[in-house]
């Protein structure tokens, strides 16, 4: 058998599986989003783009979209920057670096469900460690029901997710730092650059590819977050921490609107696609210039 | 030598074949497996395990194979199985709007023949029988009937020098005295939203009556009607006076129940599944805690009791429909209904179940339900699911923004109209 035949044979099974679990359901979801299926009935009607048009006038969708944007913003700001700082600090041969790395990376081995449960305990209004710590520090006026207050619920969930995500960012940046050319750093130092200048002008530009990976993963993780929201607040109280994924679940499985839920899922896919395409094109254009 | 081996092998083969044939001839007919998915799990498991074991022992011709799932996992799984054409033969469901939805979607099969064959009409009360019928046909076999009421800590009440109230004014007095004695009068854990629903159900039923409430649930009355506004104002009065535990949306129903158990709060308005926490809290029904029905508000309005009736339905695409129907008939009998409801806090729908299985509180519940003229399903089982979703959000929001109640009601009405319009378009 020629080489091509072997390749086809090896790819046939994974491709068939990929078709069955990804490609076909993807097109099925597009079709369902153009129907009024309730998720149970045998029959349904084709409604064209009605579900998509409804998405634009649904206040719950826009609310969830804003929450996702806040999530992306916080996720891009804190875990990414913190992960980078920690990676730079722990990249040096300091005592106990391995232990610190392990501790910071540890949350990554937990599933979001476990992370959510841990933080549920932390945020518990009466016995949670956060309120107890605030009380002990004399900030009693700041104590509150973090997950039951609509003003703090979303941020509280994002902080819990960010706690886990920081470890991933740190590990990726640490890997990136291994490929940073030390001769360039030494040359910059000999030329009299300060540490800050070395970091921003020599180290950071060399971490560009790692940053692309980190930012992409961060945006995708922020937009697809579901389990931690579901475990911690279920999108509540009264939709104050609702994100697109929980809205999709609520509409499709609780409110018997599978067609509309599918439309939300596809909108989410489009949003992620647009963000990633814009980001990659910008980065590649900069590369070319 | 080869010949000998071949001959020996042939003899062995013949012996094996004939042996298996004879064995097959002697074997008892294989039990018909009936699959049963349900949400009777965790703290709400009741006696389901015992029911299945006992059923299989007493009915060797069937093998009832059950799969318990938690509520949320159940909701998703059962829908996937139903639409995938691979449902269990039987599954548990909530009587009311939820079963109606399955009937409308043609996903469950009528079981009138089971009712006829086993003469089930004679086994259940009128209230329960109403819950079995949808669009003129029987679809639902009741397994358990719960009832929502105030469960209170007897010691806390004694220490505050109060007794269970019978009227709304007395209720307000009790709350005030509990508060003065340093106890939060009412525990509510509305994190999952549904525990707050009884706070609309009862004030509305006690002031506007069952007929108006039914109209609201069907969507013909408005959430901005003075009747609903009054019910919310009653609720708001309690919130404003600080009778509710702080941050109700931070806790679930079991945490609220535990607050009553520890004496942190005086009472909680909850379903009779409250009694399933006896072991966890470490107290005894009737001895350490008791219940009283929601007090009368307007004496001209007939009393109504609120609660869910859980039961079993037969999937339209069941693989073993005949065997499943036999199982349904058996599940309605005294034995299984007794086993399932022991220790669950619920009442067995079968009227022939001996009262000996009930604790002192269940007997009181039974006595009360025998007298009360009306029965209503709780909010999320009485109104279509998309509308219930809007309403449940409103209740949680109210606990956070009680002063905003008029806006909340306006938003709820708007959400209801939108949900019903979308439903009509289907």
Characterization of this structure:
The complex is a heterodimer of chains A (289) and B (426). With 289 residues, chain A is mostly helical. Chain A has a single domain (33-288), classed as MetI-like fold, CATH 1.10.3720. In chain A, 73% of the residues lie in helices and 0% in strands. Chain A has helices spanning 3-32, 50-57, 59-90, 97-105, 112-123, 129-136, 153-178, 182-190, 195-206, 208-224, 227-232, 244-254, 258-288. In chain A, helix 3 (59-90) runs antiparallel to helix 10. The relative contact order of chain A is 0.14. By secondary structure, chain B is an alpha/beta fold. Chain B folds into two domains: 32-146 and 308-352, 3-Layer(aba) Sandwich (D-Maltodextrin-Binding Protein, domain 2), CATH 3.40.190.10; 148-306 and 378-421, D-Maltodextrin-Binding Protein, domain 2 (3-Layer(aba) Sandwich), CATH 3.40.190. Helix content of chain B is 50%, strand content 15%. Chain B is built from 19 helices and 14 strands. Chain B has helices spanning 2-26, 48-58, 71-83, 97-104, 112-117, 126-132, 154-160, 168-180, 198-207, 209-218, 226-240, 253-262, 278-281, 321-331, 334-341, 360-371, 379-382, 385-400, 405-425, and strands at residues 32-38, 62-68, 90-94, 108-109, 133-134, 137-138, 140-145, 148-153, 184-186, 265-271, 289-292, 304-306, 309-315, 374-376. In chain B, strands 1, 2, 3, 4, 7 and 13 form a six-stranded mixed β-sheet that branches. A four-stranded mixed β-sheet of chain B has the order 9-10-8-11. Classes of the chains: A mainly alpha (289), B alpha/beta (426). The A-B interface holds A 36, 38-42, 44-45, 47, 124-125, 144-145, 147-150, 234, 236-239, 250, 253-257, 260 and B 75-76, 79, 82-83, 101-102, 104-107, 191-193, 246-250, 385-386, 389, 393-394, 396-397, 400, 419, 422, 425-426.
């Amino acid at each position: 058998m020629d080489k091509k035949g072997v390749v086809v044979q090896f790819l046939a099974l994974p491709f068939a599986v990929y078709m069955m679990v990804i490609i076909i359901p993807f097109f099925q979801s597009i079709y369902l989003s153009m129907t009024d299926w309730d998720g149970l009935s045998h029959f349904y009607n084709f409604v064209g783009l009605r579900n998509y048009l409804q998405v634009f006038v649904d206040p719950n969708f826009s609310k969830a979209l804003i929450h996702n944007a806040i999530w992306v913003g916080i996720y891009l700001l804190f875990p990414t920057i913190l992960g980078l700082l920690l990676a730079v600090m722990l990249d040096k041969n300091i005592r106990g670096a391995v232990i610190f790395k392990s501790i910071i990376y540890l949350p990554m081995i937990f599933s979001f469900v476990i992370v959510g449960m841990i933080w549920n305990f932390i945020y518990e209004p009466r016995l949670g460690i956060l309120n107890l710590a605030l009380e002990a520090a004399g900030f009693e006026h700041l104590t509150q029901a973090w997950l039951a207050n609509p003003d703090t619920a979303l941020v509280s969930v994002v902080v819990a997710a960010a706690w886990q995500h920081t470890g991933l960012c740190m590990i990726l940046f640490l890997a990136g730092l291994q490929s940073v050319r030390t001769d360039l750093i030494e040359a910059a130092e000999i030329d009299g650059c300060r540490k800050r200048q070395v970091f921003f002008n020599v180290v950071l530009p060399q971490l560009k590819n790692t940053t692309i990976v980190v930012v992409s993963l961060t945006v995708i993780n922020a937009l697809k977050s579901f389990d931690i929201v579901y475990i911690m607040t279920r999108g509540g109280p009264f939709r104050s921490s609702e994100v697109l994924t929980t809205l999709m679940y609520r509409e499709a499985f609780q409110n018997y609107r599978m067609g509309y839920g599918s439309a939300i899922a596809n909108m989410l896919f489009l949003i992620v696609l647009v963000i990633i395409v814009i980001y990659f094109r910008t980065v590649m254009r900069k590369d070319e210039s | 030598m080869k010949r000998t081996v071949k001959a020996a092998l042939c003899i062995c083969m013949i012996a094996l074949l004939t042996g298996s044939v004879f064995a097959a001839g002697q074997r008892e007919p294989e039990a018909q497996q009936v699959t049963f998915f349900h949400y009777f799990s965790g703290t709400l498991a009741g006696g389901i395990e015992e029911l299945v074991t006992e059923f299989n022992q007493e009915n060797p011709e069937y093998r009832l194979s059950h799969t318990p799932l938690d509520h949320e996992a159940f909701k998703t799984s059962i829908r996937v199985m139903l639409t995938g054409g691979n449902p269990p033969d039987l599954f548990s469901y909530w009587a009311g709007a939820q079963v109606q939805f399955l009937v409308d979607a043609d996903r469950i099969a009528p079981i009138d023949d089971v009712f006829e064959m086993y003469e089930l009409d004679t086994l259940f009360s009128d209230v329960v029988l109403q819950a079995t019928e949808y669009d003129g046909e029987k679809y639902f076999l009741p397994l358990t009937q719960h009832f929502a009421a105030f469960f209170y800590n007897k010691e806390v009440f004694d220490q505050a020098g109060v007794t269970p109230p019978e009227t709304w004014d007395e209720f307000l007095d009790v709350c005030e005295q509990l508060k003065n004695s340093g106890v939060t009068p009412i525990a509510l854990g509305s994190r999952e939203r549904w525990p707050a629903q009884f706070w609309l159900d009862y004030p509305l039923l006690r002031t506007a009556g069952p007929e108006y409430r039914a109209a609201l649930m069907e969507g013909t009355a408005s959430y901005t009607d003075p009747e609903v506004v009054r019910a919310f104002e009653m609720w708001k009065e309690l919130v404003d006076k600080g009778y509710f535990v702080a941050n109700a949306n931070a806790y679930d129903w079991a945490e609220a129940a535990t607050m009553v158990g520890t004496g942190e709060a005086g009472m909680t308005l909850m379903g009779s599944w409250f009694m399933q926490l006896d072991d966890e809290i470490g107290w005894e029904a009737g001895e350490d805690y008791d219940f009283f029905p929601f007090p009368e508000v307007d004496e001209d309005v007939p009393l109504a009791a609120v609660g869910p009736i859980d039961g079993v339905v037969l999937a339209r695409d069941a693989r073993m429909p005949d065997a499943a129907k036999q199982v349904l008939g058996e599940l309605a009998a005294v034995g299984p209904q007794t086993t399932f409801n022991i220790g669950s806090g619920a009442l067995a729908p079968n009227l022939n179940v001996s009262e000996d299985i009930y604790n002192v509180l269940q007997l009181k519940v039974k006595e009360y339900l025998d007298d009360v003229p009306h029965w209503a399903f709780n909010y999320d089982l009485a109104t279509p699911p998309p509308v219930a979703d809007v309403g449940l959000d409103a209740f949680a929001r109210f606990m956070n923004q009680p002063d905003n109640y008029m806006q909340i009601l306006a938003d709820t009405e708007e959400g209801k109209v939108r949900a019903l319009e979308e439903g009509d378009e289907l």
